[in-house]
Write a structure and sequence with these properties.
Length: 303
């Protein structure tokens, strides 16, 4: 490889490093906002979870079984798997690990004699499923990096309508849960039936204390309208909130994974630049040595 080729390669790698460094900085800036959105959602999610549980306790088992979203379908035949992926790549294993988890779940469901149907958010998930001849029943794209509640509502309403109409008997979601910019974990959660769902992880000690403190007061609450009517309003919000939380967690995880991947790419580019610079210097030194030897040889021949 000539010096010119090495210089061109170094120049190309330097340009790539500029791009990856810029993408890392953009992802880092957006990640902070995504973390704030997750933190802002938690108090509301905690409150609606408590309200739903209290209203369900007040309504009683007999009445809540009248609500379509709370009715467990007998003999679950069709299980919906919602894969939450990204619209873009360049984020390491962010998208592929969700796809692998969904395909493993499909195999488990089919081994149990049931049928698995896919739903997906994000172009990467949709295109991957289509490439594998597993066309999603429904798909949503264009908002994965900055989802808003309206996006979650659209997804949730489609799933709830399919559940109420009997087209699906169970809904599970797969998404990357955000732990830190360096760590994301694949989470699998049940959305419908709601009895098996949870808006937040297991209650903390603080949650337990609050619920114990408010338990005696909840018996003195008069519901207007009745608890069943309130549940009819709360349950759809409950499901929409679950989807929204998963979208926010996935968004933050995507940005964290992209920031990490771009940092790694920048570091690798720097190592390649050092390698090729050393190679170019060696080639230049060899050329200089060769020229000196030719000059010395010529001088000796003249003498």
């Amino acid at each position: 490889m000539s010096q010119r080729d090495v210089k061109n390669r170094i120049s190309s790698i330097q340009n790539i490093r500029k791009i990856t460094s810029a993408m890392e900085m953009v992802a880092a800036a957006r990640l902070r906002r995504a973390e704030l959105r997750i933190a802002a959602l938690r108090p509301y999610a905690d409150s609606i979870r408590r309200m739903t549980r209290q209203a369900a306790d007040a309504a009683g088992v007999g009445e809540i079984n009248q609500l379509p979203l709370l009715q467990v379908h007998e003999g679950e035949e069709r299980v919906a798997l919602l894969l939450i992926t990204a619209d873009r790549g360049l984020a390491g294993a962010f998208n592929s690990q969700i796809l692998r988890a969904g395909l493993r779940a499909q195999a488990e469901i089919e081994d149990a004699g049931q049928q698995a149907v896919f739903f997906a958010t994000g172009r990467r998930g949709v295109s991957s499923l289509t490439f594998r001849n597993r066309e999603p029943e429904d798909a949503w794209t264009g908002f994965t990096e900055r989802p808003v509640f309206a996006d979650a509502r659209e997804v949730a309403q489609a799933l709830m309508a399919a559940y109420v109409d009997g087209k699906i008997d169970r809904v599970e979601i797969f998404y990357n849960g955000y732990i830190s910019p360096l760590t994301q974990e694949v989470r699998r959660q049940v959305v419908l039936p709601v009895q098996e769902a949870s808006v937040l992880p297991a209650p903390t000690e603080d949650d337990t204390v609050i619920e114990e403190d408010t338990a005696p007061q909840s018996a003195l609450v008069d519901y207007e309208p009745d608890p069943l009517t309130i549940l009819k309003q709360l349950i759809p919000d409950y499901v929409e909130l679950m989807i929204y939380r998963a979208l926010l967690e996935s968004s933050a995880s995507e940005l964290g994974a992209r920031m990490t991947a771009m940092r790694s790419a920048s570091e690798n580019a720097g190592e390649l630049i050092e390698k090729y610079t050393l190679e170019m210097n060696r080639a230049r030194q060899a050329e200089i040595t060769q020229e000196i030897m030719e000059v010395v040889g010529g001088a000796e021949a003249l003498s």
